[in-house]
Amino acid sequence: MIRVEVENLSKKFNIDCRREESALAKLIKFLSGKKEKRQRLALKNISFEVAAGQVVGLVGRNGAGKSTLLKIIAGIYQPDSGKVETKGDFIYLTSLGLGLAPKLTMRENIYLTGAIMGLEQNEIKQRFGQIVSFSGLGNFVDQKIYQFSTGMIARLSFSATFYCIKHKNPDILLIDEVFGSGADIEFEKKASEKMEELIRGGAAVIIASHDMDVIRKYCDKVLFLENGRISGAGAPDCAISQYLKV
Amino acid sequence: MAVAQFKLRNEGSYLGIFWYLLEPLSFFVILLFLGGVISNNSIYKYPLYLFLGLIIYNFFLAVTSSSTNVMSYNAGFLKSIKINPESFVLANAFQFCFSHIFELIIFMAFMLFFKANLIFMLAYPIIFFFFFLFILGFSFALATLGVYLIDLKNIWQVAGRFLFFATPIFYLLPKNTWLFYLSRFNPLYQYLTISRDIIIYNGLPALYGMTLVALISVLIFLAGLFIFEKNKNKFAEKL
Predict the structure, then answer these.
(1) Contact criterion met (CB below 8 Å) for A164 and A117
(2) Within this chain, do residues A84 and A30 fall inside the same structural domain, yes or no?
(3) Quick one: which of A130, A162, B143, B170 has the fewest CB in 10 Å?
(4) Longest dimension (CA), chain A
(5) What is the per-residue pLDDT for A179?
(6) What is the ipTM of this complex?
(7) For A200, what's the count of Cα atoms within 13 Å in the CB-facing half-sphere?
(8) Do A84 and A19 reside in the same domain of the chain?
(9) Which residues of A fall below an 8 Å CB-CB distance to B?
């Protein structure tokens, strides 16, 4: 069953810098009649499909369009043209720990992450024990996290994000550069096993990564993106070697 | 989320709420001195008139001003999770409700001190409900505009200063003047008048006037929400 269908997808971004977004700058621009816009083509005529149980990898340099593509599929960005169709519940995993507030305690951060990820108060309460136990940070629950080491923050952010996922068995899984929690070897192993469990759960999976070992290990098919276009597609080894030649 | 934001705003200082209250309190003392001692004004129960005006204005400005950059403040989330951005505007507005409760407690202490009848405070939740809708309408519109104008907060704070002097917070509007007629179009003035008439002067303003204010508040709320809904899909990529 096809879970993700992308057809002739294109996306452009305006690249006017932020200082041009002040009210005065906009007024001057309006009065001067200047209308030119600088644009960058992020994606151009992208088409592919992902079936249930299939794992597709996205490779390419920084700025090639991998994250933009995933964000459009996840509904965070809107396409300029083309079609994206998804069937079923999906989760989009990106830079873990983005939303942790250093001045709040670990407990408060878990509740905040859960609320932002759409969980009800009682659902977070139910998962709270699992998060603390998986992170191995049971002794620091009421400590403010600006006092945490980088590794401890990595443990917390992975555990909180992972256990606050709304759909435990998603139909579509989008993973944007989140392999490797950044914690110690013991936790890294646990985290990798959890990720693997999620990936092998039968969902249609799309992984964007620079880690070629991860792409080789999990993906059935790889798309090589270059300047917003698909430059190569096929078996992992073939697409990866194409990418590495560039 | 509102609780987390409230804690973050007041973090690092046990006097966090005091800092929020300091502005209306200090203004209260200064204006009481200027209005009562220097110009020797004749407004009945002036301290209550002034303090109620200040806290209502303070709440309006705090919520709306903070809404101007609520989207850029949460840009990290908006860019990485499919989330309802309305929740950020609502959480932002609700966090100030906690502080407003403290202001109201102080106001009630003043009422006791000046021997005013506290029972009329029971009308405030109804007034506040519509006032809050009115503020939310502004907040949704400002949150949207703030995505496109990075200096909106500065502009809004200047506008807030104008509004402070244009609204009879510390003075009484002289009747039959152009400012009096103009103020009838200022919803903040209407809320101040209704609140003061009921809570301080224990009177009942004209029903049609109150209905009109309630209706305008609902319309402003719907208009703000409409602007927000029309634009929210573009927030993640504009920020």
Answers:
(1) yes
(2) yes
(3) A130
(4) 62
(5) 66
(6) 0.77
(7) 8
(8) yes
(9) 13, 18-19, 21-24, 26, 71, 74-78, 92, 94-95, 98-99, 101, 103-104, 108, 111-112, 115-118
Residue in this structure with the two tokens 């003035």, named with its chain if needed: B189
**Which phi-psi region, left, alpha or beta, contains residue B92 (left: φ > 0; alpha: ψ -120 to 50)?**
alpha
- In a domain, residue A231? The reply is yes
For chain A, what is the domain count? 2
CA A155 to chain B, closest CA, distance in angstroms equals 19
Q: Give residues with Cβ within 8 angstroms of B230, minimum separation 6.
A: none
The residue written with tokens 């905040």 in the block is A112
Which residue, of A168, A183, A198, is where some domain finishes?
A: A168
Identify which of B79, B80, B233 has the shortest CB distance to residue A78: B233
Q: How far is B113 from chain A (nearest CA, A)?
A: 38
Asked if residues B225 and B219 have their Cβ atoms less than 8 Å apart, the reply is no
| CATH number for A44 | 3.40.50.300
Q: Nearest CA to CA, how far is A245 from chain B (Å)?
A: 31
Instruction: Give the tens place of pLDDT for each residue, B192-223.
Output: 999 999 999 998 888 888 899 999 999 999 99
Distance CA B8, CA A126 (A): 25
Spatial CB neighbours of A36, under 8 Å, sequence gap ≥ 6 = none
pLDDT for the residue A190: 86
Which of B13, B69, B82 would you mutate first to test chain A, the one with the most A CBs within 10 A? B82
Residue A13: closest C-alpha in chain B: B237
Residue-number span of the structural domain to which A218 is assigned: 2-89+206-245
Choose between A84 and A14: higher pLDDT. Answer: A84
At residue A59, the pLDDT reads 92
Q: Give DSSP secondary structure letters for chain A.
A: -EEEEEEEEEEEEE---GGGGSHHHHHHHHHHT-----EEEEEEEEEEEEETT-EEEEE--TTSSHHHHHHHHTTSS--SEEEEEE-S-EEEE-STTTT--TTSBHHHHHHHHHHHTT--HHHHHHHHHHHHHHHT-GGGTTSBGGGS-HHHHHHHHHHHHHHT-S-SS-SEEEEES----SS-HHHHHHHHHHHHHHHTTS-EEEEE-S-HHHHHHH-SEEEEEETTEEEEEESHHHHHHHHHH-
For residue A98, name the pLDDT band (cuts at 50, 70, 90): low
The Cα A137–Cα B10 span in angstroms is 26
